[in-house]
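Annex B.
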Amino acid sequence: MKIKKEFCMRNICGENTLVPIGETALSFKGIIKVNNIGSFIWNNLESAKNEDEIVSMVMDKYDLELNEARSNVDDFIKYLKNVNII
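PqqD family protein: predicted structure tokens.
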């Protein structure tokens, strides 16, 4: 999946956040707080072949069952698409 380069992951006061940069910072007001699983998904989005691979990676990393991992991945990717980050 292709991430728009106008967002970067930063740790602000102990919280993982997606921060708009460049021109996007002018139109996207605010930052997005991301939990540990969301941060892991973000860091692996571009290297994974597809969503199924990301689900498998989340299952392995966080010892989750398929349905829970799938739900986490689907929800996070849906949110990123809704705010036009991917």
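The chain has a mean pLDDT of 92. The longest strand covers residues 7-12. Further annotation is deferred to the next reporting cycle.
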